[in-house]
Amino acid sequence: MYVDMELFNIMKEECLELVFVFDRMGVFVDCSNKAKESLGYLQGELIGNFGEIFPNLVLEETSAFDNIETDIYRKNKTCFPADVKIMKFGKQGFVVFAIDQTENKNMARELAACKEELKSELKYKTEFVSNITHELRTPVNGIQGMAKNLLNTELNSYQLETVGIIENCCVNMSKIINDLLDFSKMESDKLVLENKAFSFREFLNSVMAFNVTLVNEKGLKLLVHVGDDIPKYLIGDELRLTQIFNNLLSNAVKFTTIGHIAVEASLIREEDDFVELFFMVVDTGIGIAKENMDKLFKKFSQVDASTTRKFGGTGLGLSITKKLVELMGGNIKVESEAGKGSSFSFNVILKKSDSAGETTGIELPNGNFIYEGSGQYTESEEESKYAGDGTKGWKLAASSDNIYQFGTSENIREINSALEKLFICIELENWEKAENFASVIKNLISDDESEQMLKKEAFRLELIIRRGDHDKAIAQFNLLKGKLAEIGF
To answer: What's the rounded Cα separation, in Å, for the pair 172 and 163?
Structure first.
């Protein structure tokens, strides 16, 4: 008994909880020092019985409560919230454990108030962004319209280039404005999808036509595969689906300098009134390191600062794409490795339709082909073979590794193709594109010691082009081409 009393006295003095002991009739027996302090009683002062301290609880012979939320009343009849646990010990009485929740309740109220304040501030911010972007759109459209008018007048080469730059800046600015408008709609949950009937293959054709010019400018190939079991007409938001593809394809073009971009469209599920489609956009570009994968779909985020400086962009495109895919009942994923390209895949759920509205009559064919623009498709079994079932880790069967093996037929073909485009760009003094093709040629030449001289000449050509010196660029181009011809290129 001595040990029990010693332990109880230690508990009374040191326990951080409020501990009360009552007999089986609810008459106060003892309590911890923390309990006396919290209820406003002095040491040795008589404390009320169970019903006075816990008026909202009833103590009976069978009472046993675990984590009950109730109010504990102080000596001055004020109260505070607490979590209470009641335990019965034999026939002698009850022990009550209580934890004061006043501070937690206050913090919860403050947190709720902060959330409301933040919500209000986000609303004002979203409205501000929306209003500003709408105001910006008017002058940008005006400048772009005047630039287009100027392009239809007689201009010298310098003026033509300057006006062309102005128009391109307006196009880029319009894209940024549209991204910000979509972002503000997403933040305020006002992004609503339309449901209209459309021709699936005409939709995909228009997407390819929109992007093929940029693909061709970089000397890439656009390979497409369309499943023959995809219904001809569907119901959904064609405009937003186009936006998803344009975001993914523009990124693929932006970060790819050699090789191809491939698009896969296949049917993975069909019910009475809806279908689930699976899409992939695969490129042979710079790829993404594993440690940067989690940044891809975050707002205003890009994998690193140098990417923003070199390639531009707001970092909103993929965030908006992810939101649109989710609104269409799907998910988006990415598989990538630094230096070995990227593969973006997503699925969407669309309703089936018997017909569409107005159609142009130009549609993508089924099967594998290379898209060449203006509705032209070239069948190519070698260059557009597909491995797997189109749903897991889809990749082109023909590996692009041979492109980088100096002297192979694939490598020679790619170098000669880049040389042709490079010469045209130098002649037209389109230095930005010329630098791109010079970089492609440099990367296609092996790092082996036997080819170090060629590599240096290709690098020298890239530096000259960067300075915009036409005569020296032509001379260096001819020197490099001559050296390549000596070894069989």
So the answer is: 14
